[in-house]
Design brief:
With 252 residues, this protein is mainly alpha-helical. The protein is built from eleven helices and no strands. The longest helix is centred in the C-terminal third of the chain and has 25 residues.
């Protein structure tokens, strides 16, 4: 079990933010945990510690948003996501810690810059429909990035947000999608030996914060504007992304 206080200083807020996001705030902030935790530990160790916690969060989310989902989108996205997970598992041995930090940093930075650009340039957006070709591409990409760094949110948002689904229907669909993805990821993670006793014990220590975050997110879903929550989270994500890019390019 990890006993470094610095790790818990960054890990506990990361778990709470992800829980709030999964509880109904949306926005793809499930990706925030691995970048933040990577400030203290290697990225793949952070991903391994987070996966059991994400699975528990998903179970709570499935209950909270039961019966609220879009069948058409799930039929398109889920098979593609499984393929993306398989590709992620097969490429695992070719990725170094520097590669992963660079990938995480780029995803985090570009995602936050895109979010800021959309806020500054509000333009009428064409409402789209579920599409097999686009959904398969973005679903596979979400599966791949989710396998490596639990960053499937941005590809999912790129595909789903333009459809302008009802907020609760949107969240319920993403809850089911990531529940299937995360439980599927347990198989290759175990096969690759990422679930050692230290990682699992650390997951168990952080697990108490999972339901706190999710239930708080469910509370905020109906009662609180998410503007300032996202401002803080995306700001933190941007700074973290820049730091990880710097570490990947300039560390010895």
């Amino acid at each position: 079990m990890i006993d470094d206080p610095l790790f818990y200083l960054v890990a506990i807020p990361a778990v709470l933010i992800v829980g709030i996001s999964k509880g109904g705030m949306g926005g793809g902030l499930g990706m925030v945990a691995v970048p933040i935790m990577s400030l203290a530990i290697p990225p793949f160790q952070a991903a391994a510690i987070m996966l059991p916690i994400l699975c528990v969060m998903d179970l709570i989310g499935l209950w909270g948003f039961r019966g609220k989902y879009d069948k058409t989108n799930l039929r398109i996205l889920l098979p593609a996501a499984v393929l993306g997970i398989l590709l992620g598992a097969l490429s695992f041995s070719y990725l170094t810690e520097q590669h992963i930090k660079l990938m995480i940093g780029l995803i985090a930075t570009l995602f936050t810059l895109n979010y800021a650009w959309q806020k500054l340039h509000r333009k009428p957006e064409k409402v789209t429909q579920a599409d097999a070709v686009k959904g398969s591409f973005w679903g596979a990409l979400a599966g791949f990035t989710s396998f490596s760094v639990h960053a499937g949110g941005p590809p999912m948002n790129i595909y789903m947000l333009p459809q302008k689904l009802d907020k609760t229907l949107f969240v319920g669909t993403t809850v089911i999608f990531f529940a299937v993805v995360n439980f599927t990821k347990l198989i290759p993670y175990a096969w690759l030996g990422l679930f050692d006793s230290a990682n699992l014990m650390t997951s168990l220590a952080l697990l108490i914060f999972a339901p706190i975050g999710v239930y708080f997110g469910m509370y905020l879903h109906k009662r609180v504007s998410d503007f300032w929550f996202y401002m803080a989270c995306y700001g933190l994500l941007f700074v973290t992304g820049v730091k990880l890019i710097s570490e990947s390019l300039f560390s010895a």
